[in-house]
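Consortium newsletter contribution from the modelling node. Members have asked for a concrete example of what our holo predictions look like. Here is one, prepared for the farnesyl diphosphate complex that several groups have been discussing at recent meetings.
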Amino acid sequence: MNSIKHVAIIMDGNGRWGLKHKKSRNLGHKEGLKTVEKIIKTTIKNNIKYLTLYAFSTENWKRPKKEINFLFNLLENFLLNKISDLNKQNIKLKIIGKKQFSKKINILLDKSEKKTFKNKKLQINLALNYGSKSELVHSFNSIKNKKEKINEKNVSKYLFTTNIPDPDLLIRTGNTHRLSNFLLWQVAYSEIFFEKKLWPDFNENDYNRILNKFKKTKRNYGNI
Ligand code: FPP
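And here is the predicted structure:
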C-alpha cells in the first residue's frame, strides 16, 4: 500500500455550482470554502502532512472585478476567523505564489504564516496568484543569478515548494481534464484523479474513495 505525504487539489467548479443552483457564481465560492474546511479535517484524519490547494491562479485576474473582490474578501474573513483555530490544531499555513495583493491582504498573509510557522501536524500550501510557468522561470533566474548548476535539485530548490515533497496525488474536481498551470514540475510523477463532482459537492467520502484508490495504485516511476 502506498503511503501519502502530500495531496494537491485543483478546486474547480464553484462558479458552475452557483449557477446550477440558480444563484451567483460567488455563492459557489462561498460554498466551496465549506468544502475546504471539510477536506482539511479529512486530511488530518488520514495523517497526511501536506495539502496544497489551488485557490487563485495568475490567470484568474482576468475574471470580473466583482468576483475577484469576493474571493479575496472570503479569504480575508477566513483567515481572520480561523487562523487561531488552525494554529491550535497545529496546522502550518504557507502561501505559494507571488504575494502581490492589497497591503491589507499582504499583511494578513504574512501574519498568518508567521503565527503558524512552527506547526507540525499538517502544512497547508495555499496557492494564491500562483502560476507554474512563472515559478519555473523564477527558479531558472535564481540559479543563473547565483551562478549555480542547472540540475533537477537546484530547479526544485528555487521553487515556492522548496523542501516540500512532490505531491503523491493530484485531484481535480469539476469534470475538467487539465492542469491549468498548476505545479507542472512537481506533479511529474503524481497520480492524477479527475473527479466529476463540482468542488462544493465534493465530500469526505469522495476524498476517502480517491485516497484509498491511490493507496492501491502500483507506482512504477518508469520501472516495470
Ligand atoms: C475554481 O472554480 C475555483 C476558484 C478559482 C477559487 C477557489 C476558491 C475557493 C474554493 C474558496 C475560497 C478558498 C479559500 C481558502 C478562501 P471556478 O470558479 O473556476 O469554477 P467554474 O469552473 O465552475 O467556473
